[in-house]
Automatic annotation (TrEMBL):
The keyword Transport applies. This is ATP-binding cassette subfamily B protein. The lineage of its organism: Bacteria, Bacillati, Bacillota, Clostridia, Lachnospirales. One of its GO terms (molecular function) is ATP hydrolysis activity. The keyword ATP-binding applies. It is a multi-pass membrane protein. Keywords: ATP-binding, Cell membrane, Membrane, Nucleotide-binding, Transmembrane, Transmembrane helix, Transport. GO terms for cellular component: plasma membrane. Residues 332-568 form the ABC transporter domain. The chain crosses the membrane at residues 21-41, 53-72, 158-178, 246-264, 276-297. Residues 17-299 form the ABC transmembrane type-1 domain. It is found in: Cell membrane. It comes from Murimonas intestini.
């Protein structure tokens, strides 16, 4: 953990070293000042020596100025190192997250990653700043003040020692108890962020189902859990300040009482008594600082652990050592492929899949909900790896390709497609940043997106809001298809990507594919039989297995599921699940 986090501080090594150095310099000045003050009182004020007051007073001002300078510089370097550390952590985490496979993301959950990138990093930033500024300063100040107190008067200094031991022990138990609660708060932040994220991304569904009250109470629960934890933690911390004050005043009273007696007995001077009182404050302030550092460190351990988990997470999809950078063609072959999301699960989602697809073929894939159609196509671009068996693209195992090369050749229009905030043109160029406007328009024409884009007042410069909420479902799907086409892939996968497009436009798109990208292998997952009936062959999926793989005409004669769905949809117009479920 330390090695991983240490790598992110390297850049700020100088600032990380200079901060404690300046803080110690500040402590030295803080220790010297009461001594000078004692000299002013004993040798200047009491003896009426004005020149001594001026001379020592000058040194005192100089020491205070050096202390001020050291404090400011320490603060400045500390802030630079801690904010830089936080920036590096955020960026390193974000970069590593970009390498994550779907399985890695599933492991952490999106909300969990957001909390780690925000709350946990801020926590580490505060802790690091505190550590740099206080970790050396507080013990140094405590030790210096204690040594000075003992040099002045052993008897009175022993009172400090007793107070430090007593107060230190109390603070340790209080802070330890509070920290326990602080550590519990982070997983609760994950829950709250998950609730916010889910609500915001599904706000339309929430409104459509009038579930605002339900969502509010769900959020209140998540937020309330954090509140409860903090109340418990803070309840512990409320003892700190009164306990400190009580000890400080107690010590001052005792020192004044005993000190006054000693002054009368001439075993102590007034100046020494004043320095002792100043050291009393230094000692107790250092204790307070140490207890805060203790809380920050223990709290940050939980965050550090959560951040390190993300930084050390390696994508379970590895690029081969000597990768292939060229995919020969769009042929696909599954050889006895099994696949499970959870390796420990008893039954794989895909079982013994064996099939072969020729380059340029149009393959329809149909099957009931959960029959593993998406899981099947996700393996082709290595969004997940097969659990057993082998998957070949262009005659080579997908694991032999450079991942970027493979994914550039396999274009997937996901079921849950996403548009980003930006113009239509910018969104299209996500598929290929080099694409000219003409190429974008050509792709839109093929995806039948040109008609509605040209009707928009700003055409291709129309701004899309986040998530594509200002375009209709069908328009969004067509834009996503155009974006996928711009990659000019050897394999194009449409995962239920025309479900919101009317049947006439759907067939127009498929015709354009056949005529204009004949060499591209097309895999079309669909619920509508009309979307696959002109395919070269159709895969019928049933419960993670292939129930049939043939031309639509042959399937009509040989495959009961296909025939039933065909008949029900052409005669009755129902969808796949309704009819398959009636079997
Ligand atoms: N990320 C995941 N983690 C664990 N299980 C998953 C995951 N995604 C899908 N599954 C499970 O795998 C099975 C197949 O899901 P898949 O999405 O491949 O089916 P599908 O045929 O595409 O369904 P649909 O037509 O509804 O999209 C389902 O039982 C589903 O619960």
């Amino acid at each position: 953990m330390l090695k991983t986090l240490g790598a992110q501080v390297k850049e700020f090594k100088k600032a990380s070293v200079l901060t404690p150095v300046f803080m110690i310099l500040e402590v030295i000045m803080e220790t010297v000042i009461p001594l000078l003050m004692a000299s002013i009182i004993d040798d200047g004020v009491e003896k009426g020596d004005i020149s001594h007051i001026y001379a020592v007073g000058g040194w005192m001002v100089a020491a205070a100025a050096v202390g001020l300078f050291a404090g400011v510089m320490g603060g400045k370097f500390g802030a630079r190192a801690s904010t830089g550390f936080a920036r590096n952590l955020r960026e390193a985490m974000f970069e590593n997250i970009q390498t994550f496979s779907f399985a890695n993301i599933d492991k952490f959950s999106t909300a969990g990653l957001v909390t780690r990138l925000t709350t946990d990093v801020t926590n580490m930033q505060n802790a690091y700043q505190m550590i740099l500024r206080m970790c050396m300063r507080a013990p140094a100040s405590l030790i210096c003040a204690m040594v000075m107190a003992f040099t002045i008067n052993v008897k009175l200094a022993s009172i400090y020692l007793a107070a430090v031991i007593l107060l230190g022990t109390c603070l340790f138990f209080i802070m330890n108890n509070a920290t326990k609660y602080f550590q519990q708060a982070f997983p609760k932040y994950d829950d709250m962020n998950a609730s916010v994220q889910e609500n915001v991304s599904a706000i339309r569904v929430v409104k459509a189902y009038v579930r605002e009250e339900h969502e509010i109470s769900k959020f209140h629960r998540a937020s309330g859990n954090i509140y409860k934890i903090f109340v418990k933690a803070e309840r512990n911390l409320t003892y700190n300040a009164p306990l400190m004050q009580f000890t400080v005043y107690g010590c001052i009273l005792l020192i004044c009482w005993l000190g006054a007696k000693m002054i009368v007995g001439t075993t102590l001077t007034t100046g020494e008594l004043m320095s002792l009182l100043a050291y009393c404050m230094n000692i107790l302030m250092s204790l307070m600082m140490l207890s805060m550092v203790f809380v920050m460190i223990t709290m940050s351990i939980a965050s550090a652990r959560r951040i390190t988990e993300v930084l050390n997470e390696k994508s379970d999809l590895k690029n081969p050592e000597a990768p292939l950078y060229e995919v020969k063609d769009g042929s696909i072959e599954f050889r006895h492929v099994d696949f499970a999301y959870n390796k420990e699960s008893e039954k794989p989602v895909l079982q013994d899949i064996t099939l072969s697809i020729r380059p340029g073929e149009t393959i329809g894939i149909i099957g009931g909900t959960g029959s593993a159609k998406t899981s099947l196509v996700n393996l082709i671009s290595r969004l997940y790896d097969v659990t057993s068996g082998q998957l070949l693209v262009g005659g080579k195992d997908v694991k032999e390709y450079d991942m970027e090369t493979l994914r550039n050749e396999v274009s997937v229009v996901l079921q849950k497609n996403v548009l980003f905030s930006g113009t239509i043109l910018e969104n299209l160029r996500w598929g290929n940043k080099e694409a000219t406007k003409e190429e974008c328009m050509e792709a839109c024409r093929m995806a039948c997106a040109d008609e509605f884009i040209e009707k928009m007042p700003e055409g291709y410069e129309t701004h899309i809001t986040q998530g594509g909420s200002n375009v209709s479902g069908g328009q969004k799907q067509r834009l996503c298809i155009a974006r996928a086409l711009l990659k000019k892939p050897k394999i194009l996968i449409l995962d239920d990507s025309t479900s919101a497009v009317d049947t006439a436009t759907d067939s127009k798109i498929r015709r354009a594919f056949k005529e204009e990208i004949p060499d591209t292998t097309k895999l079309i997952i669909a619920q509508r039989i009309s979307s696959v009936e002109n395919a070269d062959r159709v895969i019928v999926m049933e419960d993670g297995r292939i129930d049939g793989f043939d031309t639509p005409q042959n399937l009509l004669e040989t495959n009961a599921i296909y025939r039933e769905v065909y008949e029900s949809q052409t005669k009755g117009g129902g969808d796949f699940d309704e009819k398959a479920g009636e079997e």
